[in-house]
Specification:
Layout lengths: L1 H12 L16 H4 L2 H11 L3 H6 L5 E4 L22 H14 L6 E4 L5 H16 L12 E9 L10 E2 L5 E2 L13 E10 L8 E9 L3 E2 L4 E2 L6 E4 L2 E2 L2 E2 L5 E4 L7 E9 L9 E6 L1 H8 L9 E10 L2 E9 L10 E7 L13 E5 L8 H5 L28
Parallel strand pairs: 1-2
Antiparallel strand pairs: 3-18, 3-19, 4-5, 6-7, 6-16, 7-14, 8-9, 10-13, 11-12, 14-15, 16-17, 17-18
Length: 395
């Protein structure tokens, strides 16, 4: 499968015209059909890095939810010769496959809330949206990013991984049905830096996004130089023996990996500010970092990605070092066509309010250094204050 993909990728890269490669399946799908130990052996045998396979190999992942979930009347074996699983197994495999891609930076889940024709249109719209293609009236691109301010979240020590119990839904470790407990998730460390631009009507930023990043106990921060290796100190019965550190190299999924993105927001045209996102190499990232705008703080976030009732959420937890305005700040984001109360938010989070159209909570504002103190900024969500509106229109 990977060799077939690589062949088409090579053909596309050598094509003189714009070329789009669409894969019916992705490499990570295999993890849903194998036992964890077999998947691990396969990665080791092929020297695969799971984070790289999931996050870097494909520019967009679209998960088409099986008809076995939400469109059961259309799930039949007699009209599809390649379909052999009963409906219960199909549901289980669909959930495992969807979970395998959680963490990808551009991940859309297309459920069965509409008829099949509309489902296909929604899928095409997701691809067009990622490519930056204006579909006009042919497709309704009414999906937009919605943002919510979170006041409180479950501590990691109190959360537990849920298991899927067939068609009976989510259960805890004792088999008791639960609704407001944490689902499975993937955590990442995300670092944003704004760059110097020719004028204030244009924005540019770079991002590095990594998983399994080592925490520096002495410096009380993330070791951003963690790259495909761990520094391991011998520990015996909880007491550090202070032996010399051992560096272990490899490509197992337990090792960290980074992806890099360069984003530019162009001046407003017809009330729209088009954005161009490009995946870049580590070398290109370091070269661009020299152009860092000293008027902005570096933004450090822990990003938690999870699926909740077929809706893909990303939760950004701002971390120090940061501006005081960002301390304790937690923002939940999702892309959806649902409006207002039609969108069901995770019950295990304490949501303060929606901030989709509140410019105070844009990353550009949050990273801005206080130079003249003209603009008021949002306080920490754990205070009683309410941010005042900033009127200069920068989002």
């Amino acid at each position: 499968m990977m060799q077939v993909e690589n062949t088409f990728f090579d053909l596309a890269s050598n094509c003189r015209r714009n070329c789009l490669v669409i894969c019916d399946r992705g490499i990570m799908d295999g993890s849903a059909y194998l036992k964890p130990e077999d998947w691990k052996k396969l990665k080791e045998k092929n020297n695969w890095n799971e984070v790289d396979l999931r996050d870097s190999r494909y520019n967009l992942v679209v998960h088409m939810v099986s008809a076995a979930i939400g469109a059961e009347d259309f799930y039949r074996l007699d009209n599809n010769s390649t379909r052999t699983e009963g409906i219960e197994i199909a549901r289980e495999l669909d959930k495992l496959t969807a979970q395998a891609w959680v963490g990808h930076p551009y991940y859309d889940v297309i459920d069965n809330s509409t008829d099949f024709e509309r489902k296909v249109v929604r899928m095409i719209a997701a691809v067009c949206n990622r490519l930056g293609i204006e579909a006009g009236d042919r497709l309704s691109l009414d999906s937009k990013k919605r943002k919510f301010l979170v006041n409180k979240m479950m501590d990691d020590s109190d959360s537990f991984q849920l298991k899927i119990n067939g068609a009976h839904g989510l259960t805890d470790e004792k088999g008791i049905s639960v609704v407001n407990s944490y689902p499975q998730f993937q955590d990442f460390i995300v670092v944003h830096d704004y760059l110097v631009t020719p004028n204030h009507h244009m924005q540019a930023r770079i991002r590095r996004r990594g998983q399994n990043v080592r925490w520096d106990v002495e410096k009380h921060c993330w070791d951003l130089e963690t790259d495909n290796r761990y520094q391991v100190c011998a520990v015996s019965k909880g007491k550090d023996t202070k032996n010399s550190p051992i560096f272990i190299y490899g490509t197992d999924a337990d090792f960290s990996n980074w992806t890099y993105t360069h984003t530019t927001r162009r001046p407003e045209i017809n009330k729209e500010s088009p954005e161009l996102r490009m995946q870049i190499s580590a070398r290109e990232y370091r070269l661009l970092l020299v152009q860092k705008d000293v008027n902005h703080y570096t933004i450090y976030k822990k990003r938690r990605c999870f699926l909740w009732k077929n809706q893909y959420f990303q939760m950004d937890i701002y971390e120090e070092p940061c501006h005081p305005r960002c301390r304790g700040l937690i923002i939940l984001e999702t892309y959806t066509t649902l409006l207002d109360k039609d969108l069901e938010l995770p019950g295990f989070l304490e949501i303060i309010k929606e901030i989709t159209n509140d410019g105070n909570y844009s990353m550009y504002k949050l990273s801005k250094k206080d130079s003249d103190e003209v603009n008021r900024v949002p306080p920490s969500p754990r205070t009683d204050g309410v941010p005042e509106t900033i009127t200069d229109g920068v989002v």
